[in-house]
Write a structure and sequence with these properties.
By secondary structure, this protein is mainly alpha-helical. The chain contains 9 helices and 2 strands; from the N terminus they run ββααααααααα. Helix 3 runs antiparallel to helix 4 and helix 4 runs antiparallel to helix 5.
Length: about 170
C-alpha cells in the first residue's frame, strides 16, 4: 500500500488513476481524427496505456495507410512533427511529418491539403528542417528534404533563398 496525503491506495486504485492520467495525455492528440475508422481510438489508447508505444504508432500508421484515413495520417504527421514518444517516435522527423501530410491530402483531408500546400508553396518544409528546435538529425533531414524537392521536381518547393542557404550550409560542412 502507498500512503498519499493520509489516504491509502491499493494497486488497483493506482492503476485506475494512472490510466485516467494517460488518457488525458493521449486522447487530445487522438481526438483530432474525428472522421477516422471505427475502433482505432480504443485500440491505440489501449496500447499506449500498456506502454506499448511502438505498437501504438504502427497501429496508427496501419489505419492511416490501409484504411486511407486522412485524419489519422494527420495524427501521424503531428506525431512526427512533435517527436511523439507515445507513438514510438524518438525525435522530431520533419520530412516524415511532411510525407504523412501529403498522404492525408491524398486521402481527402482538407487540413492535410492546406498543410501540404504550405510546405510546398511557402517552403515550410525546409524552414522547419533548418530552424525547428529539437530536431536531432538536422543534417540528414536536410539532405532528405532537398532530395524530396528534387524528386518531386517542384520549383516552388523551397524559396530560392532558403534553398541557397541550405546548399551553402551543406557545402560548409
Amino acid at each position: 500500500m502507498i500512503m498519499l496525503q493520509g489516504y491509502s491506495l491499493n494497486r488497483k486504485a493506482i492503476k485506475e488513476v494512472f490510466f485516467a492520467v494517460m488518457a488525458l495525455f493521449v486522447l487530445p492528440t487522438l481526438a483530432m481524427a474525428a472522421g477516422a475508422p471505427i475502433g482505432w481510438q480504443r485500440e491505440v489508447t489501449f496500447l499506449v496505456s500498456q506502454l506499448r508505444y511502438e505498437e501504438a504508432g504502427e497501429t496508427l500508421k496501419q489505419y492511416c495507410i490501409e484504411e486511407k484515413s486522412g485524419e489519422l495520417c494527420l495524427v501521424m504527421a503531428s506525431a512526427y512533427l512533435e517527436g511523439e514518444v507515445r507513438f514510438g517516435i524518438e525525435s522530431k522527423d520533419i520530412v516524415e511529418a511532411y510525407k504523412y501530410t501529403k498522404l492525408a491530402c491524398d486521402f481527402g483531408s482538407a487540413s492535410g491539403c492546406e498543410a501540404y500546400k504550405g510546405a510546398v508553396e511557402n517552403g515550410e518544409l525546409l524552414q522547419l528542417v533548418l530552424y525547428e528546435p529539437g530536431v536531432n538529425d538536422r543534417d540528414e533531414q536536410l539532405k532528405r528534404a532537398i532530395q524530396l524537392g528534387l524528386d518531386l521536381n517542384v520549383t516552388t518547393m523551397f524559396s530560392r533563398t532558403l534553398l541557397q542557404e541550405a546548399v551553402s550550409e551543406e557545402k560548409i560542412e
